[in-house]
Amino acid sequence: MSVSAPVDSAGKPLTKNENLLKWVSEMAQLTKPERIVWCDGSEEEKNRLTEEAVAQKIIEPLNQEKLPGCYLHRSNPNDVARVEQLTFICTPTKEEAGPTNNWKDPKEAYEQLGKLFDGSMKGRTMYVVPYIMGPAGSKMSKVGVEITDSIYVVLNMRIMARMGKVALDMLGATSNDFNRGLHCTLDVNPERRFICHFPQDNTIWSVGSGYGGNVLLGKKCLALRVGSYLGKREGWLAEHMLILGVESPEGEMTYVAAAFPSACGKTNFAMMIPPKRFKGWKIWTVGDDIAWMRVGDDGKLYAVNPEFGYFGVAPGTSYDSNPNAMKTISRDTIFTNVARTPDGDVWWEGKDGATPQELIDWKGNAWTPASTEKAAHPNARFTAPATNNPCLSKFYDDPAGVPISAIIFGGRRATTVPLVMQAFNWLNGVFYGATMGSETTAAATGKVGVVRRDPFAMLPFCGYNMGEYFQHWLAMQSTITNPPKVFMVNWFRKDKNGKFLWPGFGENMRVLKWVVDRARLRVGGQETLFGWVPKAGDLDLSGLDIPHDQVDEATAIDLGEWKTELESYDEFFKSLGDQMPRALKLHRDLLLARIDAVT
Ligand code: GTP
Ligand code: SPV
Ligand code: MN
């Protein structure tokens, strides 16, 4: 099947790029669709595809008075999250993918998936979705094209990325520099589900899933897995980080990037509303999930958010916990696997107000409060445009990015890790990132609540050898001559009864304020073996209605716990083999020796 150059509604060519046309032809030859639709990103196209998706029962309209432009999608119950065991990095050697990734030989992977793709779109439509990750025209941005058989994917990609004509224009008539993504939902059978990345070919093949991170190929697949590989090659960083601006009452702006693992609070932190005590302080969202960072001419690290929308966790989102998210998802939003009320509103566990007496649950079944199952899936998500966000930073689309003054790492840890500490230097900061641990969440299939090492929140997303990735972070010090300060936080420490010690959410502003003041060298700190922590009185706790000894418990450092913690890194470090940087191993040994010296 040879593909002719697509035209827009006025008959003008959308692209004449031969590299793109040739690849689309090849993929059409493989998947054998009945017709090919090139997406231009227009409103007319959105309306047409939305109507089609409704007619095909892929999405259903919600109450358009309450939730204008909002739709509900129910995925196959076997297809509700990322599947790490079916995600592969297909590099020429296994060592390049490293011990933390599943690996397939590229030739074998193309063959195996090629068989699944062969004729997979017979009798159906193939959508060609050109998109940009990053602001149009930025030297930090990348063009991708996703071929998919799923209207749900097209409608989501349209929200999550700058999609359509704008991307073809950026690609231009001759460039061959674009990510080639191929997706087919197939029969949504976990036995025939594979998400394969070919970093050397700038190619992604995903088959057998219709869910978020598995199929919106610009997001985790390109912006993180392939992105991290490109970052290593080209000297920049692709990270699982939110980006926010903190504005002081005087109008001083400080930008912070923070890596928390999946479902550990990035969206919430990026949209936080400071408590009353912080009158005049304001948080501006640049991004809620992914940061691409490069060193600027001034030696500072500059970050852009490659995405254009939010694919956020619905359960737990409320006017109490995250009012900005609630406003963001009040229109033009696709909800996936949430519950539906009789009047066409959405509901999930942790939403404001009383639990409705009657619902249709995420599987499409009748539900009442007596039901033993959850009404919304714990990894139910919303897809909403960034431009809906009331606290969207005016620099979210700035091709130059924003200068980062602080990097924060944080996991979900019931013990050991204090509320906040600051690394002494870059090495110490990279050590924080490399040794991050977190309890697993519903964002990926598998057991929930088990502590695992999730370095830099990138365990599921690093597209190459993890030891080399650590080395890349260490090496960046030579080019970042004006580096951000590095911090570790933990909102999730619990008391002996299993209750969170720290109220979290908006109250995290108290910690962020200390971070900003430390980054600007204007507040004291107390030295510990592991980093600087706030001195008594440095954390502003005024108006916080929890006992101060509870805060003491949240901020405490217990050397016994830390000894066990550091000893537990040994196995992980060893598993990374020769690629594990010696500087980080020595740092661990030094900390253990210093604990011994003082106890
Ligand atoms: P991904 O989109 O999966 O990468 O997740 P994310 O890091 O953006 O997570 P998100 O902000 O959606 O938070 C997910 C879960 O963490 C929700 O259940 C929140 O209620 C909970 N959470 C967020 N912030 C806090 C906090 O400060 N304290 C506590 N206790 N829970 C929080
Ligand atoms: C995550 O799991 O970190 C997400 C959701 O942000 S998904 O896009 O499905 O990976
Ligand atoms: Mn994420």
TrEMBL record:
UniProt-annotated binding residues for Mn(2+): K220, H240, D289
Domain Phosphoenolpyruvate carboxykinase C-terminal P-loop span(s) in chain numbering: 236-588
Specify the pathway.
Carbohydrate biosynthesis; gluconeogenesis
UniProt KW Isomerase keyword = no
Q: Give the top-rank taxon of the lineage listed in the UniProt record for this protein.
A: Bacteria
Question: Tell me, what is one Gene Ontology molecular-function annotation carried by this entry?
Answer: phosphoenolpyruvate carboxykinase (GTP) activity
Q: Which residues bind GTP?
A: A263, C264, G265, K266, T267, N268, R381, R412, F505, G506, E507, N508
Q: How is the cofactor bound?
A: Binds 1 Mn(2+) ion per subunit.
Q: So which cofactors does this thing need? A: Mn(2+)
**Reactions that this protein is recorded to catalyse:** oxaloacetate + GTP = phosphoenolpyruvate + GDP + CO2
Q: Where found in the cell?
A: Cytoplasm
Q: Which PANTHER family match?
A: PHOSPHOENOLPYRUVATE CARBOXYKINASE, PHOSPHOENOLPYRUVATE CARBOXYKINASE [GTP]-RELATED
Q: What quaternary structure, including any partners, is listed in this protein's UniProt entry?
A: Monomer.
The protein's name:
Phosphoenolpyruvate carboxykinase [GTP]
Supply the source organism for this entry.
Labilithrix luteola
